[in-house]
Amino acid sequence: MPLPKINTPTYDLTLPSGKKIKYRPFLVREEKILIMALETEDMKQITSAVMDILNSCIVSKNLKIELLPSFDIEFLFLHVRSKSVGETIEVNITCPDDNETTVPVKIDIDTIKIKKTKKHTNIIKLDDKLSIKLKYPSMKSFVRDNFEFDPNDNEVNSSLNLIISCIESIFNDEECWNASEQTDKELQEFIEQLNTKQFKEIENYFTSMPKLEHKVKVKNPNTGVESEVVLEGLASFFN
Questions:
Q1: Per-residue confidence of the chain (239 residues) as pLDDT tens digits?
Q2: Which of 59, 173, 192, 236 would be a feasible disulfide site paired with 231, CB 3.0-4.6 Å?
Q3: Parallel, antiparallel or unpaired: strands 167-171 and 131-134
Q4: Domain boundaries in the chain?
């Protein structure tokens, strides 16, 4: 006689970008994949494990995980985890007063939010006539630009590649040039024409975009100093 099947509950969630999805907790076999990836301390493997788990756990149809903004992915994963292995997570925080002592802190996952900057906008005015419209980096581009290390690349090139992948269109009052109709080389040549101020305006789009953030207070047991620490990004909650 075959063993019985275990019913797995499903949950509804509204992502920070506004998409509504249905998901299930991850299973023991999926948890093993994550644990093994975490043990490698290899961010590329960890990110790949996160993607595989989410693709298995999303019940909603026609949702391409790899095209979601990275902050949607981070938010979603935390909620899948909270329904899977517990609604609290323990994080080791390094006390900033000595940068040596670590203190374990328990965090309620439901209290972790996505920080949104009020003046954040995806339309960057380059001059009196020309503007550029940007889109959020997807997890696919996030992984490519952050974890697939190219020894011939550098910080400037990485920043340039990220910007190029996130251009949606360039426009003025009379014309609009869709990025999908341009080559990467053409887009790069356009970006390289910008002055420092214009380039900084575009960079500010990425530094001010929504991000997973949580503030915790820690007290150094050796010095008695209490400090506030800001955790940002999914990796901050897995150490």
A1: 777 777 788 999 999 888 899 999 988 888 888 888 878 877 778 778 888 888 889 988 888 888 888 889 888 988 888 888 788 888 999 999 999 999 999 999 889 888 888 889 999 999 999 999 999 987 766 666 555 545 455 556 677 888 998 999 999 999 999 999 999 999 999 999 999 999 999 999 998 999 889 999 999 999 999 999 999 887 788 66
A2: 236
A3: antiparallel
A4: 11-114+211-237, 123-207
